[in-house]
Each structure stands twice: as C-alpha cells, then as structure tokens.
User: Fold this.
Amino acid sequence: MEVIKIENLVKQYPMGGQKFTALKNINLNFEKGEFCGFIGPSGSGKTTLLNIIGSLDMPSEGSATVLDRKIEKLSHIEAARLRRKHMGFIFQTYNLLPVYTVFENVEFPLLIMKMSAEQRKRKVQDALEWVGLTDKAEARPAQLSGGQSQRVAIARAIVKQPELVLADEPTANLDAENSYNILETMVKLNRELSTTFLFATHDEKVIGYLKRKVYLVDGQVAKDEIVKLKEGTEAQRHKEK
Amino acid sequence: MMAFLLKGLARDRSRSLFPVLMVSAGAFLTVFLYSWMYGAMGDLVSSNARFDTGHVKIMTRAYEELADQIPNDLALLGIDRLLEQLRKQEAGMIWAPRIRFGGLLDIPDEQGQTRAQGPIMGLGVDLFGPLSREVETLNLQHALVRGRLPKQENEVLISDEFAERLGVNIGETATLLGSTMNGSMAMYNFTVAGTVRFGVAAMDRGTIIADIRGVQYALDMQDGAGEIVGYTENMLYADEAMLKLAEKFNNNFSRLDDEFSPIMVSLSQQNGLAEYLGLADKVGGIIVGIFILAMSIVLWNSGLMNSLRRYGEIGVRLAMGEPRGSVYRWMIFESIIIGIVGSILGTLLGLAIAYYLQFTGIDVGNFLQKSTVLISNVIRARVTGWSYIIGFIPGLVASVAGTMFAGIGVYRRQTSQLFKELEV
Ligand SMILES: Nc1ncnc2c1ncn2[C@@H]1O[C@H](COP(=O)(O)OP(=O)(O)OP(=O)(O)O)[C@@H](O)[C@H]1O
Ligand SMILES: [Mg+2]
Assistant:
C-alpha cells in the first residue's frame, strides 16, 4: 500500500527578489511500514521535504500525496486534521511543553483529538511503557536528560498510533548510547505496529538503522537505496559497539 | 482541553503572574492619575469660580477690557436695581456683588504712627445681606483661623499669614490706604475681626475681606461694584448653560455704544480659562490616550515577546494538528483573562488610593508659593464613574489588541517557519 507519492515536487523560497530552489523535481514513493531516511549535507533540502510531507509547508510546484490527500490542495483545517489523525512529529529540539508533566505532554495530542479521559490514560501509559519512562510520568521536562526528553517526544509522536512518523534529526542532541536506545524503540514500533518512519538525518548511527536511504544533494535525489538487512542485524551492530 | 490549557497558564508564571502584574500596574496608574488629575482640574475650576470669576461675571464693558487692572473707576453703578432684576429674571442663579481693590494696609501703634505696613488685595463682598450666600461660597467659616467673622461694616478678615507677618491682633485697627473710585486718596479704618486661611496660596499671601458696604464707603463707590458674580444653585459649572445665559443677558442689557453698559462673561471667557476648560474636558481623554498608547506599546511588546517565546509551543500544537483558529483563539482568550484579572486588580488598587487621596489629598503648596493660580494647596483626587472603567482601556483593550496583533504571526507564517524562528 502506498502511503506517500511525490511527483515532480519543486519548492522555492523567495530570496531578495529572486527565488531560491530548495527542492528540484523530486519523485518518490513510500510504502506502508517503511523505515526510511533522507540523507544529505546541510542545506540539501531534507527538512524542507519532510515539512512538505508533514503538511507543515506547501509545495511550489508538483504534487505530494500523503495518505490519499494532496498536500497542495489542503486547506489549513484539512491539513490540521491530517496531522491530528495520522501523523506524529519528532523534532531535533524535542519541543516538549515545559509547564506540563511527561504524562501531560504525551496526552496533549489525544486532547486535541478529543479523546475521552479514560482512553487517554490508557494510551499514554502504553506509550510511556514503549519508551520505558513509566516511572517519569509525573516529572517535568526540565527534570529529564536529553535522551529521556527525546523518548518523551517519541511517546508523544506515537501515542495516537499514527500511520506516519516524521523525525527531523531526532538524535542530533543525543550521545551514542541514547541514540541507539531511541532507534531501537523506533525499530520496535515500526516492526510491531507497521508505522511508517521517515527521517531527515546525517547521523551515521541513524543511517545504520535505515532500511531505505534517499540521498539528497542540492535539492535533488542523488541516490535511492534499499538496504537488505538480515533479521536482528541492527541489534547485533549495537552490541558490537 | 480547556482545563488542560488553564492548568498550563496557571503553572507558567511568565505567562500568568507577570503579565497580570504588568497589566495591573498599567490599570492602576491610569485610574490613579485620571482621578487625581480630575480632582486637580475640578479644584482649579471651582477655586477660580469661588474667588474670582464666578460661573458668570457682570462688569461694565470698559472694566471688562482692563479687568486685570481692577479699574474701579469703571465700576458698575446702580447695582441694587440690577441685582434686583437679576434675582427676578435669573432666579435659578445666586448673584453677588463684589469689589476688588488693591492698596496698602497700615497698622498704627498707639500714637497713630505706622507700626507695620504691607500691600494687600482686597475683596469686598456682601457678608450680611439676607440674600447673600457669600460666607458659604467663599467657605469663610471653614477658612477662619482666629477671631470671628465680621459683624459690622468696618470689620475685616485678614490672611492669617499676612496678619502674622504684620503682627496684627484681633480687635486692632488696620488702616486701608487706597484710591477712591474717582482716583483720589482713600483712607479707611477697619477693625480686624479675624484671620483666614483658604489653603489657596494665591489667596493666602495678603488678602483682606470686608463687607461690601464698608468697601463702598471707603472707596466712595455708593451703589457701585466692580463685578457681580453669579453661581448656579448646585455650584457646579456648566459651560454651555453659562455661555447661553451670558448671551441672553448681553442681548438685553449690553450696548456696544455704551462702555458703561454691563456685559456678562462666563467663567470660560475669563483668565484664559476657556483653553483650560477645553483641556480639562479633554484631559481625561489625553491621559487615557497617552496611557493607552504607552501601555499598548508595553503590552503589545510583551505580548509579542510572549508569543515569540511561544512560537515553539504554538508550532508543536499546530504540528500535532490543532487548528490555527483554535490556537489563536486560545491566545486571545488567555490575554482576555489576564487583561480582566489585571485590570480589576489595578483598578481596585487605583480606586483605593484615589479614594484615600479624595480625603487626604496631596499637599503641593510648596510648588505654589509664588503662584497666582487659584488652586488649593492640597489637591484631592476625585473618583468619578470613569475611574471605575478607565483602567480597563489599557488593561484589557490594549493588551488584548497587542496579543491579537502578535498572534497574526500564527496565521501569516507557514507552520514550519514557527519552528525555525524558535531555533534562531
Ligand atoms: N524559509 C526559507 N526561506 C528561504 N530559504 C530557505 C527557507 N527554508 C529553507 N531554506 C533554504 O532551503 C535549503 C534547504 O533547507 P533545509 O532546511 O531543507 O536543509 P536541510 O537539508 O534540512 O539542512 P540541515 O541538515 O542543515 O538541517 C537551504 O539552502 C535553506 O537555506
Ligand atoms: Mg534540517
């Protein structure tokens, strides 16, 4: 099943009267359950592409179809609904809400979905269990380590069990140990719930886990590589380190 | 959701407590300043009216032209008839004849030699007439420091400070040296009945107040008076009504070709008080305007900073699929809560202090020592209906407007941009 279909996508930014082309004629398809990353040097357009797929930004030309909806045709309300129901975001800088507890941060997307309190409680507990933070439910973000914060962000992204999780440099602020923990969590989710994961990254640790690598150079797809991995390979590699 | 967001608001002091304090401060200053200024303006008008201009004043046309020189040679004559007419035709007003005069007050010793001497401003008013309300109008009973009010035509009240300086005691003789209506030398012996202090610097320097009959006699002004002042029954000045009254009177009595015919002018037409009254009318507006502006800038700025600081939060909420309208409405709602709470607190504090100052006042006498402005030394605040509302203009309207403006960023920017701005 096709989750994302990108056709002749172009993204331009106005730059002092002229236009700067950040993405040039991108064509890509993604299936359900992919664990894929956009890889490339800084400024190559990774975030831009991820944002368009996440309906946080609009294409200038061409089309991006996500879960059967054409991003370029969506109104703000429709885009919000798409994100609310089907997408989870993980950011490089965690972006947790500091005044709320871990539990409340994870609960927030469910509140936006107007889920009942009972359901919310169960789902938040499940999500915290996945990321191994059940004991930190009442802590505030300021009391967490970077790795723990990012795990909360993951819990928040996956608590509603979205079809699609978009993660922009999720390990950039983490050390190796934490990076692996988080990646293991995401691999597990990908395997058990068939959640589709899309990364933007230039972190070798992340790249090692990817099942598909899309290389971007200057806003163009330079290489699209499917990695055939044997079962358990990531775990082994982790243990070797 | 609502409960959740309110919880966040309550926990984040930089979003709740500090903005509330800021709004309170703004509302407080506005309420307090407005009430106090209003009190000061009111005092200036009422002091002027009581001691000098009346609500309307009748003079001869010639006197009116040279009014600051107090040209008693141009005074009104036949005032008894005029007064009688006025009291009949304009029964709703209180009418009183007055003579202002200048001169020297000479305090003789037992041998009749000058013991002390000083320049005075004199005011002859109807102290005993059955229809006279002058004692009340000038607040003489209250102003009395020593002695009593005059009971006879040749008794005077002297500024307490002046009496002290000259070393005059109650019951002693004080000789007025001045000029009569015809320009010859006037000399008249008064007896000091009491001393007064009005709490108006310009009136307390060297004023004597005597009954108008005594003054008429002293200055050879039988049946004459420099001025006739009129007051509304409730002593509240109403400019439009007074202007109309003056116009009506002038149409009936005033003749352009006769410089000794009477002319009536309203308070606002004297001493440059028109500009002042216009100002007094607008002053509330001006103060509020300035404050709205200042507070708007401050609160707008703080709203902007707050929102900028929160672009991350807003970005996250949008990314999670909360519609923009909901985020924007929440921001406004939040600022309305803060505006209301802050305005109420600030207004309460402002009112409390304004009420307090309505009783005690602030003594600005030190600044008025040399001034000739007729305004009380102790200026009291005056709480009006507006005092209750005015704080909400900057506190609520401006702060919410500021947030609305800052919140436009939520709409104008691509959601992805909100994150970038946070990261920079
Ligand atoms: N709002 C914008 N206005 C103008 N130019 C932009 C804007 N956003 C991105 N760009 C440009 O588009 C290009 C791609 O940016 P993008 O953020 O997608 O890069 P990236 O691959 O994510 O880089 P990094 O690895 O540093 O995060 C860059 O050259 C950037 O300068
Ligand atoms: Mg990027």
Notes: Residues 56-236 of chain B form one domain.
